[in-house]
UniProtKB/TrEMBL annotation:
The lineage of its organism: Bacteria, Pseudomonadati, Planctomycetota, Planctomycetia, Isosphaerales. It comes from the Bacteria. This is DUF1569 domain-containing protein. Pfam families: DUF1569. It comes from Paludisphaera mucosa. Gene3D superfamilies: dinb family like domain (1.20.120.450).
Length: 162
């Protein structure tokens, strides 16, 4: 009999729902079905929520040509697929700079996520294009953010459920 935990299939209607989920995980405890803890997941999500507003970090020089090709060929199709399916593929690589070290301050990370969500929801300025997906409108960015939050928080299983 396997004791490995499986990722939850979460769906959020609002980013506030994602913040409430993170707060519940912090308050009630959780077990990990993946590699990251709550502070890492919340820090990563906060970064990616702010990037469309503030701009994305410059990829390493060796990755720039690949990002350009993806963004201008299959990236827009991949974005439409993620949005249509409502999920992100497991195991996709991310920028290591957006993964905080383990065992961080969970309360601070959840609060950072809350601030990023509040800012994104009230932001009325232009949104920056994704390095991979290319330009997205506000609704598309919101959908991607909701899916991204559900993806990462789904790897954290509430203690009562584990």
């Amino acid at each position: 009999m396997s004791t490995a935990l499986k990722r939850r299939e979460l769906k959020f209607s609002t980013l506030e729902d994602a913040v409430r989920e993170a707060e519940a995980l912090r308050a009630g405890g959780y077990r990990r079905a993946g590699k990251w803890d709550l502070a890492q997941a919340c820090g990563h999500l906060a970064d990616w929520i702010t990037f469309p507003m503030d701009g994305f970090p410059t990829p390493p020089a060796v990755m720039r040509p690949l990002c350009f090709v993806v963004r201008n060929t299959i990236g827009p199709m991949a974005a439409r697929r993620v949005i249509a399916r409502g999920e992100m593929p497991a195991g996709a690589p991310t920028m290591k700079e957006t993964v905080p070290p383990p065992n961080g301050d969970e309360s601070a990370a959840v609060e950072r996520l809350r601030r990023a969500v509040d800012r994104f929801e009230s932001y009325a300025g232009p949104l920056q294009p994704s390095h991979l997906f290319g330009p997205l409108n506000r609704d598309e960015w919101m959908r991607v953010q909701l899916i991204h939050c559900a993806h990462h928080l789904g790897y954290l299983i509430p203690e009562a459920s584990a």
